[in-house]
Amino acid sequence: MKSHVKDNDRGNNFTFNHSQWFAASIGQKCVGMNLKEKESHATIEFKHALSIHKDVEMTVSYTMYADGKMKVKSHYQGVEGLPNMPIHALSFKLPADHNQLDWYANGPMENYSDRRSGARLTRFQNTPIENIADYVISQETGNFTGVRRVDILDNKGQGMRITSLTDALECKILPYTAFELDNAFHLNEWPSVHNTVVTVAGQQSGVGGDNSWGATVHEEYQINAEGSLQFDFMIEPV
User: Fold this and answer.
1) CATH class as words, domain 7-207+217-237
2) pLDDT digits (tens, 9 = 90+) for 82-114
3) Nearest Cα residue to 205 out of 108, 116, 114
4) CA-to-CA distance for 78 and 226, rounded, in angstroms?
5) Which residue, 53, 128, 172, 188, is the most exposed by fewest CB within 10 angstroms?
6) Where are the domains of the chain?
7) Exposure string (b/e) for 118-150, b if CB count within 10 Å is 16 or more?
């Protein structure tokens, strides 16, 4: 899926060199579906084709249980020659009134794979609008690494809980999509809030910018798109 553009990306031509992923994120096509039913649960799996390469495989499965829980698993199989991926994630929208967030993650300020040494694993609360940093230029913002759990609730305390399973997640929960943030240059150009946008990632590329603007992300914090990537998490009602 699409990642927000960081200001540092503009300085190192990241958006030009990796623009294929922008097209792939908005032009994916479902090419297969498989349903497996068992006594205790049912799993539906979707296979997607991506425009970036005909041999890339992307599958997302949803396993529903009788108690209302749902396990989500995303698997990506790349091919040689692809540019590094900005983010491996799934994104969905909730009503805007689901704006009470309770985290157990690295925080309480935003952090990234190469910008997390100052964060600590802790429980903290905030709202989607508070996750947007006051940068002069609208850009990537509001990511948290090491996410073990996050509750997304309305004012009545009802909503959902997202819990990591195999590995800790990276998440951002904002009032805008990546496209809405990127289409605004300054904060006053943001549109009205209609949704709470939830992005759950197995991995997101780091920030880079060791020279204050323009330096590329260190290799260990980039996402190699030539191999296999996967992550999973549980969604349950609260």
Assistant:
1) mainly beta
2) 999 999 999 999 999 999 999 999 999 999 999
3) 114
4) 4
5) 188
6) 7-207+217-237
7) ebeeeeeebebeebbeeeeebbbbbbbbbbebb
